[in-house]
Specification:
Blueprint: H1 3-23, H2 28-34, E1 39-46, H3 54-69, E2 77-81, E3 116-117, H4 123-131, E4 150-157, E5 160-161, E6 164-167, E7 171-174, H5 175-187, E8 193-199, E9 215-219, E10 232-233, E11 238-239, H6 243-252, H7 263-266, H8 272-275, E12 280-282, H9 296-299, H10 324-332
Parallel strand pairs: 1-2, 1-4, 2-3, 4-8, 8-9
Antiparallel strand pairs: 5-6, 6-7, 9-12, 10-11
Helix pairs in contact: 3-6
Length: about 350
């Protein structure tokens, strides 16, 4: 047979399949969501060691509690704590960390998942985390698995100065190094929007070098100013929270997952009369008006939901005497699962042990 004729026959056979493949289109909502904000992550870092820095651990655990309460799961929170105050021998109440002298809330709780602790909290590990250049063998829980649709909250607390933040009193990260790490995140499409929040002395100096797009930043103090503590707990003899974080938490505690509070409101939570230091804000890299951005875009979770008045069959278990289509028809008619002949697997199959 002529080779040319064979080729034409094969082409005719596969042409319909080619047309079908080309005609397949993704749902419009999926395409729109994939091009924008689809998920939230949080990187929460306490860079201090030693008992007298108790307040820094309380700071970061309090923010951790807030973002978790508002819906960001532990799998999307990276928590770095240089000193575990809950286990410190000076702690008169072992396994607890409080952020208020009245001890309303143990922010250490029983469900805190620390990803980097102790001497793992280094500048190298922090930069590797942000840029995705983690070492081989790093656990999945220690990776920032963000994508182009990720809104990322970065919260830092510790001791700093003009243009640097100390890590464990042994090393430091400079504002330029931090800016370059975030630029790598942008170049690698590791975030959609980023909210940078830092509570330390001369905190505003840490965002001055930023040059990547879609970044909104807030700092507890301007260059030349100290960031001050809020109050002491006489029972443990140290300051237990910083002023800026205290008032930020006071605002966050009133926020619910369906709240209409905005980032613009959050940026004004600590005026100078209560913070004593001057809160710094950088908006020039952020294209949106913070007053129109829900606070849950960074501190909560993304919940793409579709409301329906119909019964949705989310499970198709073993069905006796009825086909799948019969079940769907009955569900559409408004019948409940009790009306259907459905057999569910027992949660505790005690009959296996009889």
């Amino acid at each position: 047979m002529d080779i040319k004729l064979i080729f034409q026959v094969v082409l005719l056979l596969f042409y319909p399949l080619t047309c079908l493949c080309n005609d397949i289109e993704l749902p419009t909502k999926y395409v729109e969501n994939s091009a924008g904000h689809t998920n939230n992550w949080a990187v929460l870092v306490d860079t201090s060691r030693f008992w007298f820095n108790y307040r820094h651990v309380a700071n970061v655990l309090s923010i951790y509690r807030s973002v978790k309460r508002l819906g960001i799961p532990d799998s999307q929170i990276i928590l770095m704590i240089a000193e575990d105050m809950a286990c410190n021998p000076r702690n008169p109440r072992p396994a607890t960390v409080f952020n208020n002298v009245n001890q309303h809330i143990n922010v250490y709780g029983d469900d805190v998942e620390v990803d980097y602790r102790g001497y793992e909290v280094t500048v190298e590990n922090f930069v590797r985390l942000l840029t995705g250049r983690v070492q081989n063998g790093t656990a999945r829980s220690k990776k920032l698995l963000t994508d182009p649709g990720s809104n990322v909250l970065i919260y830092l607390t510790g001791h700093g100065g003009e243009g640097f933040l100390k890590f464990q009193d042994s090393e430091e990260i400079t504002s330029q190094e931090l800016a370059d790490a975030i630029e790598q995140m942008w170049q690698k499409q590791r975030y959609h929007e980023l909210f940078f929040m830092i509570d330390t002395c001369q905190a505003a100096s840490m965002y001055e070098k930023f040059y990547s797009p879609n970044i909104l930043a807030v700092a507890s103090s301007l260059v030349g100013e100290d960031s001050l503590s809020h109050h002491v707990d006489p029972a443990i003899g140290v300051y237990i929270i910083d002023r800026y974080t205290y008032y930020a938490l006071e605002f966050l505690e009133k926020v619910q997952p369906n709240s209409k509070a905005t980032m613009g409101e959050f940026l004004t939570v600590c005026p100078k009369r209560v913070c004593i230091s001057t809160v710094g804000i950088r908006r020039d890299l952020y294209p949106k008006d913070p007053n129109s951005v829900p606070i849950t875009n960074f501190f909560g979770s993304v919940r793409p939901i579709e409301i329906t008045s119909q019964v949705v069959n989310v499970s198709l278990p073993l069905i006796m005497e009825e086909t799948e289509s019969d079940v769907v028809v009955k569900l559409q008619k408004g019948l409940t699962y009790n009306d259907l002949k459905i057999k569910f697997n027992e949660q505790f199959p005690t009959n296996l042990f009889k």
